[in-house]
Design brief:
Methyltransferase, Cobalt-precorrin-4 Transmethylase, Domain 2, five-stranded parallel β-sheet, alpha/beta
């Protein structure tokens, strides 16, 4: 067990600092103070963070720290903290470690008994959720899906029965494919596309997936997709319209656990597992 008392500790500290996602006015006084007083800032793109610092007349040195050098740089980052330097980590926008570098630095710091100090800021996912009008509790933040269509589809299958509101990040060049896979895999759910959050062209697009797909070609920017969670009663109703074998195959495709799939079918239909077993066994001698 480890306990960290951040403000009453003589341990070295690593600062994870939230920055604006588009509107510089969203930065906090605490973030500005931290970025001004640390010895060095590790950031995704020195050009992007450099613009932010220049806007606030902050002269702190920058060091590149991104997904392609994170493994290599993390140890060096931690060494600098251990040597007594005040080190901050930021992403290009939002909170470090949320679909951006930062997790590895935090974990390494904890392993070295370095205090991790989080300076909170804006996150696109929560901002989109709050403005979506979709229930906010519970929600599941997933971040970016796999860029490969087949793997993305597999990921969506694992989310199909989740009743939580889902939050996904997506880039414009993959948005069409992702929405089509959401329609195919999750059904014609109610979703909200939030784009260019906090910026001049901020927009929320609300509707069913099938309504939004035709206008994707008109859109630009960075996107958060907020997806209404699965409605259990509706899903069960749809599954019960299938044959027992089809019902079983659906759950097997999600969990790959045969006993668990049969258990769920029995529960949905209000029948014994032995009935499900006999029905499935009659069509699949391998079980």
């Amino acid at each position: 067990m480890q306990r960290q008392s951040t403000n009453h500790s003589d341990n070295h500290k690593l600062y994870l600092v939230g920055v604006p996602i588009g509107n510089y006015e969203d930065i906090t006084f605490r973030a500005l103070s931290t970025l001004q007083t640390v010895d060095i800032i590790f950031c995704e793109d020195t050009r992007v963070t450099g613009q932010l610092l220049n806007h606030f007349n902050i002269k702190t040195p920058l060091k590149s720290y991104h997904a392609f050098n994170e493994n290599e740089i993390t140890d060096k980052l931690i060494d600098r903290v251990k040597q007594g330097e005040k080190v901050a980590v930021v992403s290009d926008a939002g909170m470090p470690a949320i679909s951006d570098p930062g997790f590895m630095a935090a974990r390494s710091a904890i392993n070295e008994n370095i205090d991790v100090v989080v300076i909170p800021g804006v996150t696109a996912g929560v901002t989109a959720l709050v403005g979506s009008g979709i229930p906010t509790q519970p929600y599941l933040f997933y971040g970016f899906l796999n860029s490969n269509s087949n793997k993305k589809k597999d990921e969506l299958k694992t989310l199909r029965d989740r009743e939580e509101t889902l939050i996904i990040y997506e880039a414009i060049h993959r948005l069409q494919d992702t929405l089509e896979l959401i329609l195919e895999t999750l059904g014609d759910r109610y979703i909200v596309l939030a784009r260019e959050l906090t910026k001049k062209y901020e927009e929320y697009i609300r509707g069913n997936v099938s309504e939004i797909i035709p206008i994707v070609s008109e859109l630009k920017g960075e996107f958060v997709i907020v997806i209404e969670g699965a409605k259990e009663s509706k899903l069960v109703e749809e599954l019960n319209s299938l044959t027992i074998k089809e019902h079983y195959d659906y759950y097997l495709g999600i969990s790959e656990d045969r006993k668990e799939a049969m258990k769920k079918v029995a529960k949905d239909r209000g029948i014994s597992k032995s009935i499900v077993y006999q029905e499935v066994l009659g069509k699949n001698k391998d079980i």
